[in-house]
Amino acid sequence: MVEKVDLLIKNGYVVTMDKEGRLFKNGAVAVSGNRIVAVDKTSSIEQKYSAERVIDATGKIVMPGIVVSHCHTHGQASMGMPAEVEMENFYDELAKWWWPFLEDQLKKEDVYALAKYAITEIAKNGVTTVDDVMEAPKDLPGVLDAEGKAFLEVGMRGILAFEATERISKENGKLGIQENVNFIKKWNDKPDALLRGVMCVHTVFSCSPEMLKEVKELADKYNAWINLHVEESMYEVEYSKKHFGKLPFEHLRDIGFLGPNVLAAQCVNTSDKEIKILKEYDVKVSHNIQTNMVIGVGLAPVPKMIDEGITVSLGNDGFYLDMFETIRTVYITHKGVLKDQSVLPPKKVLEMATIDGARAVGLENDIGSLEVGKKADIIVVDLNEPVPLNNSNIYGNIVSFGMGKNVKYTIIDGKIVVENQKVLTVDEEKVRKEAYDATVRIWTRNGFL
After folding, report:
1. 112 and 24 both lie in a single domain
2. Longest C-alpha distance within the chain, in Å?
3. Distance CA 343, CA 300 (A)
């Protein structure tokens, strides 16, 4: 007897990204509600399932949606910002530009508009999950609720974090912590919700050891993940050595902060002995290669981390909205720097963007691969190449030639959010206009307009 399902994607090259690395050259995926119920050859699936909505993926790739493990959606308002400041180091970039001209200017209406624009664009580019780190310290509380509203309207899966910091005051740091606790209480007990909260702090140079310990205790209490930045620049390394007599990850280890629920973004200047610490405590890493290079802080030792068995995922820092571009940059850059083309094989880089991304945000049992029982976060990609695809070249071609504009369908939680590069859930022109207006407001507050 044929079982009725909600969605059937057939005749595609199914790249599952599961443990076995299964590939189905003429494959299909059946979806019921928000879950995958079957992954197999099209001929087998059609014997068992039928659906009112059928996507014919002939000549296209069917794969898990991309996971962005570190993002700042509000960063879109900083693009081309005409702030003329002299910056000698990374701390100057934060203290003289990023904090005063962007994050300290954000209001909830800006957070909503900028987040909605960023996730609308990346949904078109094949992203189905975003771990977003927001800081709008002068408009607390309720910032994450405003951002969450944008995620729900678009239909994007979101792990939302408020970047708590004591850079303004200890009292403001407390407000940031409470913002995360409130969001965790609101969403984390709802297993099928699109949203999830995490605890989040900025860095060891903007958060006291006492604050970090408090955040760790709360994360353990609420069984929540922790996000933070570590060693994006040498400034943090030198600060930690000066104030604590040890390297940042040594400091975090010694105050009891590290664990398998910690996602550390950047890790550009992480030493070999600290990589051993990451492995020992099963700390996850988010690699944000493009911004790291743009601001000249270096290149994270990702191949060493992966060789050590550390989970490394991919982020975009909120700036580069085509994650296929990020995937390709990671794939080629480390090869060039190390002068070794065997570094980071294409399958591994694609894992970083999918199943390892899911593992980095604690959702590997729900997303990141196409498997029965997992949530239906699926993309259909048309590489549109004059090259026959096979099991030996499929990963390399996706990594080398994939582009956001190649994404034909983005399916999140079983719902079609993007079809033929059109977002079905929102008015794209209105979203873009609201984001533009938010940027104008921010620039006006700074006296740039």
Report:
1. no
2. 71
3. 14
Q: Which two tokens stand for residue 260?
A: 């398998």
Show which of 360, 394, 410 is a domain's final residue: 360
Domain range spanning residue 38?
3-64+373-421
Please check whether residues 268 and 347 belong to one and the same domain. Answer: yes
Burial 205-229 (b: 16+ CB within 10 A, else e): bbbebebbebbbebbeebebbbbbb
Contact 98, 78 (CB under 8 A): yes
| 94 shares a domain with 240 | yes
Residue 88 in this model has a pLDDT that exceeds 90: no
Regarding whether 383 and 264 lie in a shared domain, the answer is: no
Angstrom CA distances, 87 to 83, 94, 270, 291, stand at 11, 9, 23, 16
The SS3 call for residue 99 is helix
Residue 414, Cβ neighbours under 10 Å: how many?
Answer: 18
Distance separating alpha carbons of residues 14 and 381, to the nearest angstrom = 10
Phi (first) and psi of residue 286, to 5 degrees: -110, 120
- Find how far residue 244's CA is from the centre of its chain: 31
Q: For 274-298, what is each residue's pLDDT tens digit?
A: 999 999 999 999 999 999 999 999 9
pLDDT of the residue at 1: 83
Q: Do the beta carbons of residue 301 and residue 275 sit within 8 Å?
A: yes
User: Is the separation of the CB atoms in 255 and 287 below 8 Å?
Assistant: no
What does the pLDDT look like over 212-245, one tens digit per residue?
Answer: 999 999 999 999 999 999 999 999 999 999 999 9
Measure the CA–CA gap between 305 and 311, rounded to whole angstroms.
8
- Is the pTM above the cut of 0.85? yes
Mean pLDDT of 107-131: 98
Tokens of 326: 């990020």
Please tell me the distance from the alpha carbon of residue 141 to that of residue 129, in angstroms, as a whole number: 24
Q: Are residues 32 and 83 in the same domain?
A: no
Neighbours of 131 (CB within 10 A): 29
Answer yes or no: are the C-beta atoms of 303 and 334 closer than 8 Å: yes
With contact defined as beta carbons under 8 Å apart, do 436 and 444 qualify? no
> Helix 323-338 and helix 346-353: axis angle, to 10°?
140
Q: Is position 440 within any domain? A: no
Question: What's phi and psi for 208, nearest 5 deg?
Answer: -70, 160
84 falls in which pLDDT band (50, 70, 90)? confident
Mark which of 335, 360, 385 sits at the end of a domain. 360
DSSP structure class, residue 65: P
pLDDT of 89: 85
